[in-house]
Amino acid sequence: MSKPMPKTVTDRRGFVHGAAAIAAAGVLTRGGAPALAATPRRSPPPPLGPIRQVDAGVLSIGYVEMGPASGPAVLLFHGWPYAIDAFAEVAPMLAARGYRVIVPHLRGHGSTVFRSAEMPRNAQQAALAADGLALMDALRIERAIVAGFDWGARTADIMAVLWPERCKALVSVSGYLIGSQAGNAKPLPPQAELQWWYQFYFATERGKAGYAANTRAFNRLIWELASPKWQFDAATYERSAAVFENPDHVAIVIHNYRWRLGLAAGEAQYDAVEAKLAAAPPVTIPSITMEGDANGAPHPDPAQYRAKFTGPYEHRLISGGIGHNLPQEAPAAFAKAVLDVATLAG
C-alpha cells in the first residue's frame, strides 16, 4: 500500500489561464503550508460546447468533447445540483495538454434523456456508473482516467472498482463515496443528520412537490450552503441551472435520495452489483483524492477512507475558501490532479 502524500494547495478560480494556471497550481509545499496566494475573481469562462449526442445503453447522452481524438481519454463527471460547466475551465486545460476530454450530462440533466418512455427513472449508484461505461463503449474508448465530484465522484469511484481494466486512474473529490442502503440506514450524530436535511425532505411527497416547484431556487440554496465562501454571480449559476429543465430531472433526483434510504427500489439487474458495492471493495487503481477547505456539504474525513485506496495514492487539501464544487472553484488544482494521477499510473 502506497503511503499518502498530503499536499495543501491554495486555489481560487481564475489565477491565470491554461497551462500557466496548471503550472501555478504545481507550486506546492510538503509541510502542509499553502504556497500560492489566491488572486481576484475574473468573469466566467465561455460555456462548454458544442453539445453532442450519442446513444449509450438506455440513454441518449449529451456530452462535450475537447482535445485530439487520438489523445488519452479523460471522463469528467459532475454532481448534483451542478452541470458540465463545473468543468468549463478544467476541460480546455486538459485538452491543451493533449487529452481527449469527455464531459457528459448525467441522467436527468441537460440533453441526456432516456431512449424509451418505459424505462424506469432510476438513479441508484450502480445505474449512473453503468452510464459511464456505456458512454465509453459508445465512443469506443477502451481506457480512460475517470474524475468527478459529488454524484460524479461516486460514479468514478464505482467505475474504478467494477472495471479497473477500463479505468487508468481516478480523481475523486471527497474520496471514497461508494455506499449502500444498509449503511445509509444507520443513524448519524445529530449535527451530521442536519447536513442531510434535503435528503429527508426529498423522502416526502411535499419535498418532491417542493423541489419540482422551486428547482432553481432550491439548487441555488444548495450551492450557497455547500460552498459558503464561493462568491459566484447570477450568470454563473443560471448557466448551470439550465440543465435542470431536463424532463426527468426531478424524478432522477428524488429517486437517487430515496433509493439511498431504502425508500425506493432499484432495478433487479443491478442487485448483484449493489451487493458487491455494499461490501465496500477497495479502489486498486492509481488515485488522487481531493477536498476543499470550506466544503459545506456532507463529506467524510480523509482518514476514514484512506485504507480504501490500495494503489498509488495522494490526498490533496485545496485551501483558499474552496467548497463542494471543487473543479469550478479551483479548476487549476483539479486539472493538475488529473495530470498528476496520469503520472502515478505511469
Please state the overall shape, judged from the principal axes of the Cα atoms: globular
Residues in β-strands, percent: 15-25%
Q: What oligomerization state is this entry in?
A: single chain
Mean pLDDT: 91
Give a structural overview:
- With 346 residues, the chain is of the alpha/beta class.
- It has one domain: 3-Layer(aba) Sandwich (Rossmann fold), CATH 3.40.50.1820.
- 37% of the residues lie in helices and 16% in strands.
- It has 15 helices and ten strands.
Short description:
This protein has 346 residues and is of the alpha/beta class. The chain contains 15 helices and 10 strands. Strand 4, helix 2 and strand 5 form a beta-alpha-beta unit.
Question: What brief labels describe this structure?
Answer:
single chain, alpha/beta, 10 strands, 346 residues, 15 helices, Rossmann fold, 37% helix
Write the layout of secondary structure elements.
Elements: E1 7-10, H1 18-25, E2 52-56, E3 59-66, E4 73-77, H2 90-96, E5 100-104, E6 113-114, H3 125-138, E7 144-148, H4 151-162, E8 167-173, H5 181-184, H6 190-195, H7 197-202, H8 205-213, H9 215-226, H10 234-241, H11 249-260, H12 271-278, E9 287-292, H13 302-305, E10 313-319, H14 326-329, H15 331-345
Parallel strand pairs: 1-10, 4-5, 4-7, 7-8, 8-9, 9-10
Antiparallel strand pairs: 2-3, 3-5, 3-6
Helix pairs in contact: 1-15, 2-15, 3-4
